[in-house]
Amino acid sequence: MKDIKIQVNDLSLYYGEKKALKEISMQIPANKVTALIGPSGCGKSTFLRCINRMNDLIPSVSITGEMLVEGVDIYDKNVDVVNIRKKIGMVFQKSNPFPKSIYENVAYGPRINGLKDKGQLDEIVETSLRQAAIWDELKDRLDDSALGLSGGQQQRLCIARTLAVSPDIILMDEPASALDPISTSKIEELVHELKEQYTIIIVTHNMQQAARTSDHTAFFYMGELIEMGKTNDIFTKPEKKQTEDYITGRFG
Amino acid sequence: MNKVISDLENSFFTSKKRNEDIKGKLVIGLTQIAVLLIIAILFIILGIIIYQGREKFSWEFISSFPTDGMTKGGIFPALIGTFILVVVMSIAAVPFGTITAIYLTEYARENSKFAAAVRFSIRTLAVVPSIIFGLFGLGFFIQFVGGGIDKTFNGGELHWGQPNIIWASLTMALLTLPVIIVSVEEALKTIPRELREASLALGATKWQTIRKVVFPGSISGIMTGTILAVSRGAGEVAPILFTGAAYYLATLPKSLSDQFMNLGYHVYIMSTQSSDVEKTMPIQFATTLVLLILTLSLNLVAVVIRSRIRRRAK
Fold this sequence. Notes:
The complex is a heterodimer.
Chain A (H helix, E strand, L loop, with lengths): L3 E12 L2 E12 L3 E5 L6 H8 L9 E9 L2 E2 L7 H7 E4 L10 H11 L5 H14 L3 H4 L12 H13 L5 E5 L7 H14 L4 E5 L3 H7 L2 E6 L2 E7 H6 L4 H7 L5
Chain B lengths: L1 H52 L5 H5 L2 E2 L4 E2 L2 H32 L5 H15 L2 H24 L11 H25 L3 H9 L4 H12 L1 H17 L2 H4 L21 H10 L8 H33 L1
Antiparallel strand pairs in B: 1-2
């Protein structure tokens, strides 16, 4: 783990009085896929949402510790949350395209950044859709509503929309949990291709998916990071008993 | 002995059951009568208005001025006056109401005392009798604001400090504000959290998210609110009694500082101040019919749009 993208030091998160994340420390390598696994309510999604400060939206949340992205603590007072989110994209569990055209969905990010030039926008839309491996399916219907797409297409469109703001890091919160097996495998292939250029952190419920797609895996349980390591190691020779119990399906 | 008790119990239970049956039927019967009564009243009112108004009701009635001391002719100026009133009212109330609704749903924290105070004020505003708005309009807009303008800029000469379109419209805007706020709030709440998060996660600011995602999704709510407000404003008379409605005008208003005629007010004066109440009866009914058609169709449109919003929310 030479090239570290994100360094987390003693990060704790409270919902009011309740401590939902307990002193998480970890290193997330650049240009790799890191999977966060664990049973429901273990804090993996909450942790993911700490990385782009989506938890800011919940008034009762307070956070202690450090979240260093390229050495900068994103919870520092001087850091602009809007810039953080431009750099760290997020794909949600439920595909959430805007009720706009396919084109406008992808162009949304660049537009809010002030890009108006039609030629440049066209180019970004095309590259992003190509990167999300959905250009061929959609190129003739860019002006159609995104809501008319299938669930799998919507999710890849959402990935394209995230790519259009050219982030460094992409957070994925169970991106395939609502999709059929074919769409799921397309998303997984996509994750595999995208890691060349992006650092990807993916939350998943699906053990096989974590094993297939990720380079590193972190196992969360009851708000704690139990174990983190190379995916291969975690799945073949986990150090902790809890990890082993979980991945072999004995609980969770 | 045992048999006696069981007989007793039996008769006790059956008689009680029969009693409950009768009570139940009675209640159901009463509710049915109540419902029928309401429907009957509605149909009687509509029936009388349509029956009595149909003779006079015509294109000519709608498009011509009153004549012969308002005992003949049409209601054109009252219709135009009502139209101007609701347009100016909407221009004032819709942006104001929309902004308030956006504040309440998007910016106010859940436990904000200020937002709670605003909500309480809106609810109170919604139940204030409309005549109070009329008096407020007279005291605040005409005497204080209008009179103030005249004193400061016109050397005391009466120009703005008297009843006119602008003060009547603003008074009406206050009355209809709660309708707009509630409709817009309802529409804003149907925009799913996922869409706001999608926008924020792309690096949009809160304001950009509101402008580009939340607001476009709430346009139908703004429309419903506007239509309901217009329909309410078109039907109310009390707020404009002292603030701008005129008994009779030979010409249409030319500026916002002119007085205007109004459908509801027209019915009121025709039935109370007319030189010959009996003779103008058909005019009263036909005017009421016009007013009724206007407000009913506006409400119908609002109901249709609102049901679409609700379907989207599911």
